[in-house]
Amino acid sequence: MSADALDGQTARPAINPWIVALTVTLATFMEVLDTSIANVALPHMAGSLSVSVHESTWVLTSYLVANAVILPLSGWLSSIIGRKRFYLSCVVLFTASSALCGMATSIEQLVLFRVLQGLAGGGLQPSEQAILMDTFPPAKRGMAMAVYTLAILVAPVLGPTLGGYITENYSWRWIFYINLPVGLTSVVLSSLLLSDPPYLKAQQAARKGQPFRMDFIGLGLLTIGLASLELMLDKGQEHDWFDSRFIVWLCAIAAAALIATIFWELRHPAPIINLRLFRDRNFSAAAVCVFFAFAVLYGSNVLLPQMLQTLMGYSALNAGLVLSPAGLVTMLEMPLIGLMLSRGVDARKMIIAGLATVGVASMWMSGLNLGVSPGMVISPRNIQTLGAGMMFVPLNLAAYAFIPKEQVNNASGLFSLVRNEGSSIGVAITNTLLQRRTQFHQLRLTEHLHPMNPMASRWLTGLSGTLGNHGSDPVIARRQGLGMMYRIVQQQAAAVSYLDMFWLFSMLSFAVIPLVLLMKRSASDGGSIAVH
Question: Residue 427: which residues within 8 A CB-CB, separation 6 or more?
């Protein structure tokens, strides 16, 4: 049977497909959790391995670089060695490298093992998407993708809280060791339950007897470009961006390599990544939407814990407890979203509603102040997460609505790469703009602090008098008053900067909505795709 004849088939497992879905989601949840759980443990790692906190950040950078490099290659690797074999290899390597990370005795060892962990983890998400698309018939893909979305939305929320609890009560090494039972369980279940779909088996059979050809130039250009881009994004703010020759060189290398990759891959007869998939307007529009959506979501994931801890006096654990209810909202929401899509609700309307909800929630956050109660932070965060769940499931379905079956692996790798880069760029821009806006607001606030301002003079005189009444020398009391005034200015400048970022997130969410209107309606005959 030809690949074309197999295009419309869905791999029907001998067992319940929901067992397959939970099996592959287990490993994906473990991998996404690991991207955020290590953040809070960096100071503990630095002290244990006798390095600076600055040096310990390579533990995060190495993982992100390796993760970004492997994402677009996962589809090609699956087609070469088989998707089940590739997926199992990723789970085994991720589990083994997690154990090695926990046993590392130097920063060099830890960074090396994190590279291996990132390479393995990068293949899990796109593989799971492709497996779910092939395992479930079109009418049930909404519920299947809801399970997948549950993992990628809940894990980043729980990561910092779980990481903080483990490092404070046990050891940073246990943030890696907890992957072992999950990984071993996933290996056993995956080896028993997964199988390659007919069209992949046909593709592999067709390759037998043919000479192996590999696009080494495309692979090299893509690896150099993505690695340079990820390094630039992760280290840019630390090196003051383009005032650093290191960042300028990384930017130039990334731009040249990625542009060359595009031209090379579009002309190559057997490319490593199939960029022609972006000709499908559903896939392109969904990719742009998910890029900005993850930039907003991960930017918020960075901002809220920082704001709670640095400006409002929350501990890491308490900040995590304030943000954790959003994970519960996602868990309750996903089955309903999947059911609605399976019943034929227009996916485009759900995407628009989700983006609008995220925009409204972000606008709500832009009105917070430093005196709000925990409940006033929990409410908009829950609404924002509710909106994220409303759009991510239909976005995943819409992206693959018109992709040929034999290109699902390539499409899942590209889509995951776009989502990953959206989160990386979102975090990088968030951190940069936050500092720049803090400097701007601090400058504007200090313009009004001069002796000719009666309110400022009266406040300083009153505070100095109070300090003097408690035994301070008048001169020292005035200096203490000036110091307290400056700290308040810094705090208020930072607070307004956080609110500026939430306002920007709101505008980005609303700006992406028109792109959804570019998506096509698909035919809906006989339990078809839930994108109408």
Answer: 233, 298, 299, 302
Report the alpha-carbon distance of residue 56 to residue 126 in Å, rounded.
Answer: 29
- Rounded CA separation 444/442 (Å): 5
Determine the structural domain holding residue 69 and report its residue range: 11-138+157-206
Query: Do 337 and 142 contact (CB within 8 A), yes or no?
Result: yes
Q: CA separation (Å) from 69 to 118, 122, 123, 220, 305?
A: 9, 8, 10, 10, 29
Specify whether 186 is located in the same domain as 248: no
Are 178 and 248 found together in one domain? no
Choice between 461 and 378, residue whose per-residue pLDDT is larger: 378
For the ranges 152-161, 219-228, 234-243, 355-364, the one whose mean pLDDT is highest: 355-364
Domain count along the chain: 3
Q: What is the mean pLDDT of residues 74-101?
A: 85
- pTM for this predicted structure: 0.76
Same domain, 165 and 261: no
Give residue for tokens 């009418």.
139
Q: Quick check: is 147 in a domain?
A: no
φ, ψ of residue 371 to 5 degrees: the values are -100, 10
In a domain, 263, yes or no: yes
**More confidently predicted of 215 and 347:** 347
